[in-house]
Design brief:
Five copies of one chain form a homopentamer. Chain A contains nine helices and eleven strands. At the A-E interface, strand 1, helix 3, strand 4 and strand 6 of A face strand 5, helix 7, helix 8, strand 11 and helix 9 of E.
Chain lengths: 263, 263, 263, 263, 263
């Protein structure tokens, strides 16, 4: 069988697919939702891959579909399965989940414990580091092998770091970038619980360097986090943003009903 | 019932929808205006949501529809209702109403009373502040929960603040931005009565940071206010503008008649 | 009657409409030219509004239609009338005629008379100023309420003034802008008779700040004037240009015949 | 007869037309090549106008058609004639042939003869200048009234000179521009025989300032000349380039056969 | 016979063709894969030309086809053969294989042997240079006349070198460019075996200066190499990137099956 898996050595594949409903086909061929529901069932039945569906606001798409999992071959097959539905693929984004290269290291944490908390007793340090390792491992696992949570609103956008004149992110050394990203992450953490961010890497795979998926129950939170971060130097000086798509996360059958595809 | 409301913790949802009439469908399926009128009735009947319709000039759209209100789920449903009409959604903009972060505070007003008007007697100050609080509350309410007025001409455009080289709005500190915005607002106030501005926030939701809706009875006023503001430092150095759409605000049935959709 | 006029307090409305012929519709529904000719007749019959038609070169349009006059409601109705013809509106531009803010004032002329011509005798000055006022009034009237002349070739393009780094037109003070524009106008005057320019304002109405319509009998003159002006500081440092469309100005029936629409 | 010629006072009209074949129309209406061959015959029969056809590589076009000659009215008519064929006009470029303003003058040549060749005897100088005038006149004539040669490969692209910050071509004085262009021309001359360049002017007529048509028998030469020139200051600092289209120059009937249109 | 070859004096022709499946045609005309398989057979049967097919991720294309070989006439014919299949050509890229101008010379290698390895004995040097010449000749041959390897994932993108302000690649002298490129190449070599790069030249032929084809078995490697190189000065300061398309390399019949075309 030629559908052999294609897996990355690190990270899951992620495709964000944005569809306009082809109204005339949908009218001519009732039951168009079934193609989509079947495709989702096929991809997710064994629990290895996930799909999130949303009804988008505005002209960029009626329906948004985010799919992720280890096998790029199955993601491509999923996309082709959806091509049977009365949908027109108007935009998309391909990326891989990835660990942040700026994540704190054990040495960072050891230094922080000594400097900020005065913890230097070797046993204390070791106990604290063990707890830290668990937290970090959980966080890392959630970035590489995320479980998409159930939130009611979504925003997706791609972005790149700037390389223009004096504002050239890729000309900064690692320490400066790590320091800047740490400040950026601090803003993000003030939204912990309100907004879930999934940052996936797309350099070499799609037109921008990262894809950002934001999930929240409060639509205002999607606006507030991006706006607040824009004042952070990482965004203010070094970020270029692509198009933004916003929508209402819904169960697949409900999302399809809401965009006018019947089952 | 799955159509549960999706409301932001702060601000109403706003969608600007721009449609081209699909002439061949409109000819084949007479009565296309009814879909639009029914959709508007469905959204606005209970008084919680509003719709403004206009006949646009030029190729960007035949018909413009601005809808706003607390429930994003109903706005999405409204957009889908309109999909039944012989219309093609060519462009759109999604945003949330929001308070200006640069609005004068009570401390600002107290200082202004002392400095500009010599009002320092505590009772006088308190009386003046009470009146100021009423005005400010009315103004704030109109930004967060606006009632769209009846004016004859409209212009809509999205915009962002610049982040390029020395002209980086997001690298300015709050006091500088507040001072600059106050000067900008002064220009706006000279158009009070002639032009009504509604500025809504879209960072994280759509491709620009704000949407600007201008309403006036005199089409020349739409040009004059934007042109005059362009010399203000906030626009001259820090503003990037998206596409502009202009049109004639009309009652829905009349707007539809004017773009060639019969009832 | 709901078609009440919508007039600007200053300036006429102008729409430049660019159409591709829909060949399959034109073949199926002979007589497509009639819709256009009727629409033009309807708009221009009472002498208040004007229409200029041209056969464009290249892919941007087959047919160009420039319409202007006091009532924006009638211009919108005209655009909708044209929608019945087998034409696809591929691009357009909306603007208002306007006076130049940099036009010489009576004080400028009085100073010029003294400095350049040594005219200081009060009676002489007054006589010269009276003649100047007539000329200026005629020029002003032609900008605000233009009569389109019959020339054989046309070029239309929109433009904005730059706001980038050190080249920020809107950060210059009025005196500098007036001085620069005076030099620019001097170049324009060397083409008097060869090229007629109509500059209309579109800030707040369409995507650029001005629309420029050039009319000439010699197509080379359209190229020469824009090229020569490009070396002028106003263009060299401060102008950004949109798309250019060129064509052959023809009587409506002839223009329609030339783009393949029969009567 | 209303098809009166429209000729420029200087230069021939040039249109570059890029077509995609409309496969479904081509299948339904066999003989589509005839419309094109007839249109070419009509334009070129009297020897005043020329047409060059090529099969393009890639998605930008299947078929390229370059037409030139004195009468813009006939070029517009030619474009409309082609509209009967099963072709979709996807891109185009309109320009006029023109003399280079930086061409060497008789004074330049006289100075060069004295400085570089030590020719100062009046009779010698006069004899040399007479020969130079013939060469220059031939070169000038070939730019204004070119005869397109038969070469096997073509590349077309439009370009403009930059006006950004310190790299503003139009802010340079004439002597600097002439000196820079002379260096640029020297690179071009090293390709004499291998590559034929036709530079036509489009400021005020189309979106860029010049159109460049390169013709060569060796496709590698098209790449080499543009690449080598890119290091020249005129290109490196001052040139912005539009889209490039490349193809195989073929006799019309053969070009049409190669893009799938039968006769 | 008019299909005479068109070969470049240096380098093979390369076309990257990106297709969307036309679903309605594919449904109406079963067997659409056959047109593609026949076209590939026709181009590759004599072993002079190669084709690589892939199923792309996302909206940019369903199917990618990369074809290369000496004869541009056959590549054009191949593209036309594919036009019979129910495919829409959505994007493409045309280039020629080329030698790197920054490749090490024999003098470079001789200097390196002396400096880095202390090899100065004439016989030793000559023996080492003979081996070096073989390696370099193999490497050069693979760039000019590449044999495409079988890898499972592909990424294609075009790129240009920057010419903006202080970051102007084409204003650097050769020695600086060679030094910078050597550092860039060192990063590339750390991916030897994991990623195969084919860099082809397109200045003067298509919209960017180079096309880059990356092939790897591990999709993560496509991301990692481009991301790591972005920090290299050659990319950080001097590279502008076009669109990226990623996909799964598959045998033609399998690729066609995966995008929904049956045989």
């Amino acid at each position: 069988m030629s559908d052999e898996p294609l897996e990355a050595s690190m990270g899951w594949g992620v495709v964000h697919l944005f569809y306009r409903v082809d109204r005339s086909r949908a009218d001519e061929e009732p039951g168009g939702a079934k193609h989509v529901l079947d495709a989702i069932e096929r991809l997710t039945a064994d629990g290895t891959h996930q799909v999130l569906t949303f009804a988008a606001l505005g002209h960029k798409a009626d329906l948004g579909v985010m799919a992720l999992g280890p096998d790029l071959a199955r993601l491509q097959a999923f996309q082709q399965d959806l091509a049977r539905a009365p949908l027109v693929l108007t935009w998309s984004y391909a990326s891989l989940t990835e660990q942040s290269e700026y994540a704190a290291t054990e040495a960072d944490e050891r230094a922080r414990l000594a400097a900020d908390e005065g913890v230097t007793d070797p046993d204390d340090v070791e106990a604290r580091l063990a707890a830290w390792r668990d937290r970090i491992e959980h966080y890392r696992e959630q970035r590489i092998h995320p479980r998409l949570p159930a939130r009611r609103a979504i925003s997706f956008y791609p972005m790149s770091k700037r390389r223009t004149g004096a504002d050239n992110w890729f000309a900064l050394d690692f320490a400066d970038r790590k320091r800047l990203m740490a400040g950026h992450a601090r803003v993000g953490r003030t939204y912990a619980g309100r907004v879930l961010q999934l940052i996936t890497g797309s350099t070499g795979l799609d037109d921008w360097e990262w894809g950002v998926t934001l999930l929240a129950d409060d639509p205002a939170a999607l606006k507030e986090i991006v706006y607040e971060m824009r004042f952070d130097e990482v965004s203010a000086r070094y970020a270029d943003f692509g198009p933004f798509v916003t929508g209402l996360v819904l169960e697949p059958a409900e999302a399809l009903r809401r965009v006018g595809l019947d089952a």
